[in-house]
């Protein structure tokens, strides 16, 4: 079994070069066709977060743009921001950070496209909306079988492998903190922590999307602010090391200076892999949350999710990278969490426990966001309550299993499924390029007229398969 897994992981390393070219090519195409939408409409990204949601038939508020952003951010913001950045630097050296930055800026265009498509082809449900890549493959491409393939891969990726990664990190952080306090730990400690995490996860996921959205809306901004404050303090203490850190990033990025035996190819692949694991741009995950938002125009949620890529990589991952690079890391150490070690070196032993709490919150909210992506895609096959509850039980069980599994194995499995999922999604996003461009033109035209854009399916010629977006009763209002 170990030999078979090793062969799969080796083949996956080569396959990732294809994914990198596909992701970069798709993103560059969208940058050209949308005239750099992720740059020129940056102010609109912030404005969209404040849009008020519509009202459901029962009188309750629908999912807001910010709540949908919070659910997707909950899945994005987690292990990738701390452990993922640590692993990328440990294996690929400081240069991996440059490639994470570059891909985030470029890939934001694809993130915009996939979430815009999710809004265009979403479906109405009694409790709001649902959608995502599986749905735009079904309605936009007219290929329900392709949607089924994507939905199956996503279920294997998020509720299964990614949640095992998050649970593994949660347990590792808690154990490290207990060890530093002199507590006696062992296999029994991981089992107890895993059982507690599984129980809390079960209590939330059995409550449905609204409970998940409410919890993530509260936790994600709070934990991100605390982490940013700690990171800024650490970097300020070591501010004299910033010029050297920047030099290391750029010299290592192009192979002028190697770290830990990393070749240029390793630097690039590690940066892109960990960047994608962190910000998820192009993977087809965030559109599942983006589709649930009640907004007046699909482009608004596309811009919101593009901002999510910036928020994740440019802000949070950069703070993690500078914590590592300004506190004298030991490159090549795969097991240690370089970010936590850097915080401890700068602020003292107490800070390790704060980092543990932050990482545990990051991973817990990621587990919730990952579960929701699975729920959205299990419903693509069936609305049967039994199927949904089976998924919930599976997620709770795998959360426990991930807590006690091998660190290396769960990360490698996540790499494999993540690559397959991204490939299927990117091919669909490429095929629907024309739809995104037309919808964006409608948005731009309304803004040029001084309006707050409002979309309906009869505004764009040749648009087929749209399930909602009936002709609106109200005209767009002046901005």
Characterize the structure shown.
The protein has 479 residues and is an all-alpha fold. It has a single domain (16-449), classed as Amino acid/polyamine transporter I. It has helices spanning 2-33, 37-40, 42-48, 65-76, 79-92, 95-120, 133-140, 144-180, 187-205, 209-237, 242-253, 264-279, 286-290, 298-325, 338-347, 349-381, 385-404, 407-431, 433-448; strands spanning 123-125, 128-130. Strands 1-2 form a two-stranded antiparallel sheet. Strand 1 and strand 2 (128-130) form a beta hairpin. The longest helix is centred in the middle third of the chain and has 37 residues, at 144-180. The protein is globular and about 65 Å long. Residues 473-479 have low confidence and may be disordered.
Give the SSE layout.
Layout: H1 2-33, H2 37-40, H3 42-48, H4 65-76, H5 79-92, H6 95-120, E1 123-125, E2 128-130, H7 133-140, H8 144-180, H9 187-205, H10 209-237, H11 242-253, H12 264-279, H13 286-290, H14 298-325, H15 338-347, H16 349-381, H17 385-404, H18 407-431, H19 433-448
Antiparallel strand pairs: 1-2
Helix pairs in contact: 1-6, 1-18, 3-14, 4-10, 4-14, 4-16, 5-12, 5-14, 6-7, 6-11, 6-12, 6-14, 7-8, 8-9, 8-16, 8-17, 8-18, 9-16, 9-17, 10-14, 10-15, 10-16, 14-15, 15-16, 16-17
């Amino acid at each position: 079994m170990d030999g078979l897994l090793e062969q799969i992981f080796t083949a996956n390393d080569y396959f990732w070069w294809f994914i990198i070219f596909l992701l970069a090519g798709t993103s560059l195409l969208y940058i050209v066709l949308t005239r750099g939408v992720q740059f020129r409409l940056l102010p609109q990204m912030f404005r969209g977060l404040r849009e008020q949601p519509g009202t459901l038939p029962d009188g309750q508020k629908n999912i807001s743009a910010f709540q949908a952003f919070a659910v997707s951010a909950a899945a994005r913001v987690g292990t990738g921001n701390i452990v993922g950045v640590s692993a990328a630097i440990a294996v690929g050296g400081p240069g991996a950070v440059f490639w994470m930055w570059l891909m985030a800026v470029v890939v934001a265009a694809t993130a915009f496209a996939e979430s815009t498509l999710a809004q265009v082809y979403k479906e109405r449900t009694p409790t709001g909306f649902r959608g995502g890549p599986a749905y735009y493959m079904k309605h936009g491409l007219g290929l329900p079988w392709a949607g089924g393939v994507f939905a199956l891969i996503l279920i294997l990726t998020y509720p299964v492998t990614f949640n095992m990664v998050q649970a593994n990190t949660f347990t590792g952080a808690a154990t490290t903190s207990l060890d530093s306090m002199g507590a006696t730990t062992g296999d029994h400690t991981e089992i107890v922590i895993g059982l507690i995490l599984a129980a809390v996860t079960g209590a939330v996921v059995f409550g449905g999307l609204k409970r998940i959205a409410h919890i993530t809306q509260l936790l994600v901004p709070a934990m991100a602010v605390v982490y940013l404050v700690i990171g800024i303090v650490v970097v300020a203490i070591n501010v004299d090391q910033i010029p050297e850190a920047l030099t290391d990033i750029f010299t290592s990025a192009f192979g002028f200076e190697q770290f830990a035996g990393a070749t240029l190819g390793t630097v690039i692949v590690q940066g892109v892999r960990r960047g994608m694991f962190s910000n998820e741009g192009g993977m087809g995950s965030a559109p599942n949350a983006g589709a649930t938002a009640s907004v007046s125009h699909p482009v608004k949620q596309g811009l919101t999710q593009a901002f999510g890529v910036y928020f994740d990589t440019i802000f949070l991952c950069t703070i993690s990278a500078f914590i590592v690079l300004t506190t004298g890391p030991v490159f090549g150490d795969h097991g240690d969490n370089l970010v936590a070690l850097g915080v401890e070196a700068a602020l003292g032993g107490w800070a390790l426990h704060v980092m543990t709490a932050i990482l545990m919150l990051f991973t817990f909210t990621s587990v919730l966001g990952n579960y929701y992506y699975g729920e959205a895609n299990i419903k693509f096959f069936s609305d049967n309550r039994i199927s949904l509850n089976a998924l919930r039980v599976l997620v709770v069980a795998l959360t426990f299993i991930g807590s006690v599994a091998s660190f290396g194995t769960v990360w490698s499995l996540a790499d494999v499924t993540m690559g397959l999922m991204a490939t299927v999604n990117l091919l669909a996003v490429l095929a629907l390029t024309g739809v995104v461009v037309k919808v964006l033109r409608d948005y731009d035209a309304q803004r040029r007229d001084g309006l707050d854009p409002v979309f309906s399916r009869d505004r764009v010629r040749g648009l087929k398969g749209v399930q909602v977006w009936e002709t609106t009763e109200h005209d767009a209002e002046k901005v």
